[in-house]
Amino acid sequence: MPKAKYKKRKDGRYATSVMIGYRPDGKPDQRTIYGKTIAELEKKKASMLVDLERGIFVKDKDVTFGEYSQRWYKNKCIGIEEQTKLMYHSVLKNYTTPLDGLPLVKITKMDCQEIINGALSKPRTCQKIKITLNQIFNSAIEDALLYKNPFKGVQLPKYKKPVKRPLTKAEDILTEVTDFTDREKMLILLLKYYGLRKEEALVLTKDNFDFEKEQLRIKTAVSLIHNQPVEKETKSDSGTRHLFLMKEHIPFFKVYLERISAYRIFTNQNGEWITEQGYRRMFESIIRKMTVKAKELELPPPEGLTAHVFRHNYTTMLYYAGVGIKDAQYMLGHSTASVTMDIYTHLDKENEDARNKLQNYLSSKATLEK
Question: What is residue 1's predicted lDDT score, i.e. its pLDDT?
Fold first, then answer.
């Protein structure tokens, strides 16, 4: 088979073009290759054609991780939640910078493992690094800038998801008998008896309470970004959900709303929307007061108590009250019934043992209140 004829350039090299695909506008996407001799040029052309056939051709071997990751981040951040943006930004700023100067095609599994090894003491952070790098590398593969994901096979430290738990017997009692401020009591009632997410409770205004219909309307939530509140739609796919106010809480709610001058339920001292720092101080105050009361009553102090513990306690109450999965899904604002079902299934497994514990708890609570 005779060799193809190629035009010799002024610099002495030979050149030819190979079509590697089509551009977004439908026009052919061509790449020019060069060789000092015709034999070298044909060897490079043959290698490129084989790579194209195998689907491992790399368009640009000089693109660095830093360049590509910034373009990826800019496009990825369109239409996603602020918390997710912050996760990507934190990973790229604080953990992956050693990769920034490396061409994408030269990043190895060992390079990725060293990134993980630098954060071994933070298993959850390692999970976030994995999520971010996998998305970047897979995007680069789709853009034909990589032919394989260098993160594949990287070893991560074991990560245990936080155990979801309801309030302990002692914590349940302490939330009822501790002397809280009205604002602290308001937060506890909303978390414990209405199952609100922290983000939903902090965004409430006076208009969310409809005392005529005895309902609490939940539509929006708040993200506390860089200590500042950003309002957003709640996670629920059902839109606004209406929770019935318990009759024993209505008098307190009415008095509280009449006393506060601000439109929002939870504000800082200046009457402005509460910040992340303000919320943290309020919750820490609740914990401190419960701890003091626990010592006074010779009860175990609260440990690891968070807003989500209250929410899981509410879910548990719905389960034992016999509320069906679809109704519980609506009341909790879960996006799908499967989320609620997972919790209910877990509670089913513990039902027999929990029933005994619940009976013992109610008996001990009645004794204490006497």
Answer: 39
